[in-house]
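Lecture notes, part 5. Sequence design as translation. It can be helpful to think of inverse folding as translation between two languages: the language of shapes and the language of residues. The source text, in structure tokens, appears below.
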């Protein structure tokens, strides 16, 4: 047993200024504001301007998190960037962000567990810190999904937005920080949500419009069913591991793809709306960035108190899911 835990000591975010509302989408595809809100809960999404690389969002979020942690960029030992829409396959987004923030002493790599990426990265960072291998780990969840959306497909274009969220992890008092965690993947269901890159099968081509081969595609009903089930199961698993009940949890911080998914899981778990951190009506689905962006907003608004029990839970492409229990104490 360590006399410390791995915990969050700084948070940051970047949300682009350009906004696409549901009314804007009414002019682009056959949809309506009423339909989008009823089906998803999303009112608007923020989109990165053309000509700006996605990793620039990650630099700004990282700079905030490092400043909030009260350390310098050269103190960072490791950068983990979670993304499913990198600007380059090489160099990694993490290396591009490392250069941008001048974290000259940091190792850097990307992690792709799609929307579950932040939870995966938290567990990876925890192991590095608790083993004593690294002192400070920067996680940047950098998602520019507007770049892989077919804006003529109403099944996906209404859902996704761009943003980056970042946290710095370091040693904290043992009563705070990351506790139990759970990670899972279901590769046999991976065909239900795809973004082709260097290879695309004829089957995948046929799912998409012409000249839109490398855009996101999903089987909405299959992903919805998996999402509600996996979020419910992953939350129950982590509560059971911790030996606590839903009543002992202060906040559920979920990945935010669709309000109906969150409400479906909350109903099964008998969680009140006040216990759930939700921002997707303002941001849309920002993939792995959704949890760290919520953490930054809620912590800086004073919603979290020291000792609050937070449950992070996510699902995503792969298909993947994960959860962890976190005791707030920044």
């Amino acid at each position: 047993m360590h006399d410390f835990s791995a915990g969050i000591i700084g948070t940051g975010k970047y949300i682009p200024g350009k906004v696409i509302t549901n009314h804007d989408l009414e002019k682009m595809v056959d949809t309506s504001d009423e339909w989008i809100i009823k089906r998803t809960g999303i009112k608007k999404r923020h989109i990165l301007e053309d000509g700006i690389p996605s990793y620039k969002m990650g630099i700004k979020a990282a700079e905030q998190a490092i400043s909030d942690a009260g350390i310098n960029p050269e103190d960072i030992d490791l950068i983990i960037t979670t993304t499913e829409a990198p600007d380059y396959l090489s160099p990694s987004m993490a290396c591009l962000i490392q250069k941008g923030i001048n974290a000259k002493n940091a190792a850097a790599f990307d992690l792709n567990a799609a929307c579950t990426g932040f939870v995966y990265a938290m567990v990876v960072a925890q192991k590095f810190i608790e083993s004593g291998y690294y002192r400070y780990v920067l996680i940047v969840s950098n998602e520019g999904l507007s770049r892989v959306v077919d804006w003529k497909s109403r099944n996906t274009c209404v859902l996704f937005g761009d943003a980056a969220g970042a946290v710095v992890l370091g040693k904290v008092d043992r009563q705070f920080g990351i506790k139990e965690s759970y990670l899972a993947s279901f590769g046999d269901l991976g065909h239900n949500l795809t973004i082709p890159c260097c290879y695309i099968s004829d089957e995948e081509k046929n799912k998409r419009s012409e000249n839109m081969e490398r855009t996101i595609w999903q089987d909405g009903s299959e992903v919805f069913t998996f999402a509600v089930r996996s979020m419910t199961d992953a939350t129950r698993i982590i509560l059971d591991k911790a030996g606590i009940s839903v009543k002992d949890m202060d906040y559920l911080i979920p990945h935010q793809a669709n309000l109906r998914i969150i409400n479906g899981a909350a109903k099964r778990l008998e969680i009140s709306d006040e216990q759930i951190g939700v921002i997707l009506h303002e941001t849309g689905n920002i993939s792995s960035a959704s949890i760290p962006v919520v953490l930054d907003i809620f912590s800086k608004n004073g919603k979290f108190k020291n000792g609050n029990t937070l449950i992070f839970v996510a699902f995503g492409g792969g298909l993947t899911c994960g959860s962890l229990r976190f005791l707030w104490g920044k």
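The translated text above is only one of many valid answers, since several sequences can fold into similar shapes. The chain has eleven helices and 13 strands.
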